[in-house]
Design goal:
The complex is a heterodimer of chains A (214) and B (255). Chain A has 214 residues and is mainly alpha-helical. Chain A has nine helices and no strands. Chain B is of the alpha/beta class. Classes of the chains: A mainly alpha (214), B alpha/beta (255).
């Protein structure tokens, strides 16, 4: 127990990276998700097929394999990434596919009349999407996107295999040093749990705030 | 104002409009009547480009849309035509995430590029016109159907269209809320606005229309001044329709 308390600053640094990777991959994942969702709904046949292929490949392969391909596999093509950027890229691309599905569902749930009303006042498709459809869809997408977010927080532990010293790997390093497993593993479990709980709470707040118009 | 020539609209194999010719002049209030499925809503939706034309052409205030245009040209013309038309929908279609005032000012800001203060001033004036000044900060979910539809009317009016299109504006309202919406529309008619109204409210049609168009099975069966149409319909089809409507109305009153 004592060694755990002594090393909490080191673990918190790991937690910082876990959080950083989560936030970065959620941010870029959301951008990718919105673009892919719109591409699948409004794009021409080729664009739709590409978007569908992307989602299918990402959802049909393990995240761990995707991370390894980005970090080790791309070296064959002369692309040598540092662990952290590799983690950002792998998880953003991974996240984008899952988020695009939530966002697509949300976009489809907006009644057709909303788009028509916007068009009838002379808006362009882009204006109608940005001002009328997306704000409503994002509100609807918050619960599923929140789940993805919490999932991503935990999934970041996978990037420990490419030697990113996030929370899991910081525990592993300490274990190698002290030859004691349980305190560190339990310690990081508690930290993961606290982070998930805090984010669930914040997401609920956000959802409540965005539903003032209901 | 509006010139429709040889308009055909099909959905797949189903021909909803079969060669419609119609002219509407400035200041005229035209009411379109007909049994459901007669194509009247589709005709209205063609006028502001919500439906693509299968054949024929529509001219709205000098802007011509026709079936031969390329997709790009069509998109451009449709947008132009929409700036001349205001549309009121059966389901209101207010933006639920915006307040009453936000609904009215949205297109003023995004489409007309008006600055926000000015848009708000105009928006408040428009809401006042439909008697909803005190509701300007409410979200649509807090408004009754009648109030929502009045907001929708001022949203369309705010863009200062040359012609207003009403697609069954009272059909999804509770009976006791119908009158407040019809009153607003009658006011607009008095102001001399050009309007095309699809409705099932016969009494209202009779009061407000300069001309009644009766449609059935995708064609215009007859058109006439309202008094003449309601008292001496020329065709058997119209007579049958009016009788049915009268029966339904009586039953409605009894209930």
């Amino acid at each position: 127990m004592e060694v755990l308390i002594q090393n909490i600053p080191f673990l918190l640094q790991g937690a910082y990276y876990t959080l950083l990777i989560t936030l970065v991959s959620m941010f870029f994942g959301s951008l990718i998700g919105i673009i892919v969702a719109i591409a699948r709904l409004k794009g021409n046949k080729v664009i739709q097929a590409v978007a569908r292929g992307y989602v299918s490949i990402i959802r049909g392969t393990p995240t761990l394999v995707q991370i390894i391909i980005i970090y080790y596999g791309l070296v064959d093509f002369g692309i040598r990434l540092d662990p952290l950027p590799a983690a950002f890229i792998a998880l953003s691309v991974n996240n984008g596919a899952y988020l695009s599905e939530s966002i697509r569902g949300a976009l489809q749930s907006i009644p057709k009349g909303q788009m028509e009303a916007a068009y009838a006042t002379g808006m362009t498709p882009w204006q109608a999407m940005r001002r009328i459809i997306l704000p409503q869809a994002i509100r609807i997408a918050i619960p599923p996107v929140g789940n993805t977010f919490i999932g991503m927080l935990k999934e970041t532990s996978l990037v420990s295999v490419i030697s990113v010293t996030e929370l899991l790997r910081s525990a592993q390093l300490l274990i190698a040093q002290y030859y004691s497993y349980m305190p560190f593993y339990l310690g990081i479990a508690v930290i993961y749990w606290i982070m998930s709980t805090v984010f669930s709470f914040l997401l609920n707040k956000l959802e409540a705030r965005m539903s003032i118009y209901e | 104002m509006i010139k429709i020539n040889g308009l055909v609209k099909s959905f797949g194999a189903l021909e909803v409009l079969r060669s419609i010719d119609l002219q509407i002049s400035s200041g005229e209030v035209v009411v379109i009547l007909g049994p459901s499925g007669s194509g009247k809503s589709t005709l209205l939706r063609c006028m502001n480009g919500l439906e693509e034309l299968t054949a024929g052409s529509i001219e709205v205030n000098g802007v011509i849309m026709n079936a031969e245009q390329s997709k790009k040209e069509r998109t451009k013309k449709v947008r132009e035509a929409r700036l001349h038309t205001g549309m009121v929908f059966q389901q209101f279609n207010l933006y639920p995430h915006k307040t009453a005032l936000g609904n009215v000012t949205e297109a003023l800001i995004t489409v007309k590029k008006m600055d926000k203060t000015k848009a708000n001033q105009l928006g408040e004036k428009m809401l006042e016109q439909v008697g909803l000044s005190d509701k300007k900060d409410e979200f649509p979910s807090r408004l009754s159907g009648g109030q929502q539809q009045r907001v929708a009317i001022s949203r369309a009016l705010a863009m200062d269209p040359t012609v207003m299109l009403f697609d069954e504006p009272t059909s999804s309202l509770d009976p006791e809320l119908v009158d407040e919406v019809l009153t607003v529309i009658k006011e607009l008619a008095k102001e001399g606005r050009t309007m095309v109204i699809v409705t099932h409210e016969m009494q209202f049609a009779r009061e407000v229309a300069d001309r009644v168009i009766f449609m059935a099975d995708g064609v215009i069966v007859e058109q006439n001044e309202p008094e003449a149409f309601f008292t001496q319909p020329k065709t058997e089809r119209a007579r049958r329709f009016l009788k049915m409507e009268e029966l339904e109305h009586r039953e409605g009153v009894k209930r």
